[in-house]
Write a structure and sequence with these properties.
With about 300 residues, this protein is of the alpha+beta class. The protein has three domains: about 60 residues, no CATH class; about 70 residues, Arc Repressor Mutant, subunit A, CATH 1.10.10; about 150 residues, Four Helix Bundle (Hemerythrin (Met), subunit A) (Up-down Bundle), CATH 1.20.120. It contains ten helices and nine strands. It has a five-stranded antiparallel beta sheet. The protein has a two-stranded antiparallel sheet with strand order 1-2. A two-stranded antiparallel sheet has the order 8-9.
Amino acid sequence: MIVSFELEDGRQEESWCVRRRAGGVAAESCPAVGGTATPEGSYSAVGYLVYSIVFAEGFTWRARRTIRPVTSRGTPTVERGSSTATAFNALRELIVQGRLAPGSWIVESDLASVLKMSRTPIRAALQWLQHEGYLAARGTGSKSRMMVAPLTLSDARELYGIVGRIEGMAGRYTALLLPAQRSSLVAALRKLNAELLTIAKSSNPDPDRFVRIDTAFHDTIVDGCGLPRLLAIYSAIKPQTDRYWKLYSTTNREEMKASCKEHDRIIAAIAKRDGEKVESALQFNWGKGAERLGKTIRRLGERGSW
């Protein structure tokens, strides 16, 4: 079916894909009723807007439409599925996973060969990655070369501080969800944190699993805010923290337990609908996370510094 609704700028739009949310799983469906839609979030990195459509019967549906988003600096991004976006996602994954090591020089021809693509989308993707902070330029003019951005203590502090601020703002709005939505979100967060605590208490904690669940915990909070611009900024910068977690993940159980206690404060504030405390607790969690990461970086050394 086609659902018509109005965007914030007054334009009338139609949904091309409507999905019903049931137990966190999206299923294709075509309801024979009308409804109103409100923006739930926009994700510039993948190129589509998501809307939450709530019908009188109490069902919640989603509509998705492809867009060509623009970053805050006016740099045009591309629609999902294009060769540049494909190259961007593939290269970012190589960087995040450490297969393109911090400080390594970028050679377009080698990347084109690995990805089996022409150099034109590779070059555009590299510019995009540089714009988002995954790559850095060294030298000037014709002698300028691009390298994978190093992992340093100062960069980690800056990055964690920024993400903490963004998440804090998102959490303030997430705390204002309607009671039923907020209760469901709190239940999901408690379940995730219980899993984290189980890992932290185990004799041989799995750092990769801990990171995956911790990421899901924070993403759940941010996704609940429903602020398109904030979500777009978050989706662009948050993956950069994954680079640090990949190379500096810890098996220190006490540090893991400390993080879980900080999560408890966040959950309690959301449950009480106290946006100010949610914001403060999230920023505190990221601040302490930066301290814990800093200890590990000082012990193991920075990566890719010249």
